[in-house]
């Protein structure tokens, strides 16, 4: 079953954020746009390249009203240890959620049950707590966080302009479409 258009299921978790342990729940995803980025494990290989890349886009995402959350099945303690020992991870200023109970990973349908690890899943959630985009990659395929900026802008445009849709490769300020009978077969 697709998670698109569904509300984020309830959860409570501990996270590491800017030198502190904090509590996070699905309620934190409401009232603003959110990106939730699942990854398999701390102290690994592809994961730090992705999380560092996400940090490189974090200021741009924040300027669009987006909060970023990374999630793995590690604990918040492990996130702190990784943050303290890795130059790349040490630069991260977004929230790093621990999911040792696997609740969040199951809620987002990214848990690899046999391994107890999460797939590489990226979710864009609107201010109502509803999932608008889902991207799942195999473990060996890293993601490019710059694509999130365009997806967020398109999702925000569609939300703010009912009746309009964004075509492929849409960029802010570009032409949109108004679905109608007149467009059928003409694109």
TrEMBL record:
GO molecular function: NADH-dependent peroxiredoxin activity; thioredoxin peroxidase activity
InterPro entries the UniProt entry points to: AhpC, AhpC/TSA, Peroxiredoxin, Peroxiredoxin_AhpC-typ, Peroxiredoxin_C, Thioredoxin-like_sf, Thioredoxin_domain
Thioredoxin domain ranges (all copies): 2-157
The enzyme's E.C. designation: 1.11.1.26
Name this protein carries in UniProt: Alkyl hydroperoxide reductase C
Keywords on record: Antioxidant, Cytoplasm, Disulfide bond, Oxidoreductase, Peroxidase, Redox-active center
Catalysed reactions, as listed in the record: a hydroperoxide + NADH + H(+) = an alcohol + NAD(+) + H2O
GO biological process, one term: hydrogen peroxide catabolic process
Subunit-level organization: Homodimer; disulfide-linked, upon oxidation. 5 homodimers assemble to form a ring-like decamer.
Primary localization class, coarse: cytoplasm
Source species: Paenibacillus pinisoli
Keyword tRNA-binding: no
A Gene Ontology term for the protein's cellular component: cytosol
SUPFAM superfamilies reported for this sequence: Thioredoxin-like
Family membership: Belongs to the peroxiredoxin family. AhpC/Prx1 subfamily.
Keyword set includes Transmembrane: no
Protein localization: Cytoplasm
Pfam families xrefs: 1-cysPrx_C (PF10417), AhpC-TSA (PF00578)
Cited function: Thiol-specific peroxidase that catalyzes the reduction of hydrogen peroxide and organic hydroperoxides to water and alcohols, respectively. Plays a role in cell protection against oxidative stress by detoxifying peroxides.
Active-site feature positions: 47 (cysteine sulfenic acid (-soh) intermediate)
């Amino acid at each position: 079953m697709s998670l698109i258009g569904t509300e984020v299921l309830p959860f409570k978790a501990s996270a590491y954020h800017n030198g502190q342990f904090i509590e996070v729940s699905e309620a934190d995803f409401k009232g603003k746009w959110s990106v939730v980025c699942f990854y398999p494990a701390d102290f690994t290989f592809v994961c730090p390249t992705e999380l560092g890349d996400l940090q490189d886009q974090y200021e741009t995402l924040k300027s669009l009203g987006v909060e970023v959350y990374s999630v793995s099945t590690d604990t918040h303690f492990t996130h702190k240890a990784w943050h303290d020992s890795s130059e790349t991870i040490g630069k991260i200023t977004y929230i790093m959620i621990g999911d040792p109970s696997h609740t969040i990973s199951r809620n987002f349908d990214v848990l690899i049950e046999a391994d107890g690890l999460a797939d590489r899943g990226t979710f864009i959630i609107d201010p109502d707590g509803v999932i608008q985009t889902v991207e799942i990659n195999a473990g060996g395929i890293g993601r490019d966080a710059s694509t999130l900026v365009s997806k967020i802008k398109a999702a925000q445009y569609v939300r703010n302009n009912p009746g309009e849709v964004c075509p492929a490769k849409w960029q802010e300020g570009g032409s949109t479409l108004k679905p109608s009978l007149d467009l059928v077969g003409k694109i």
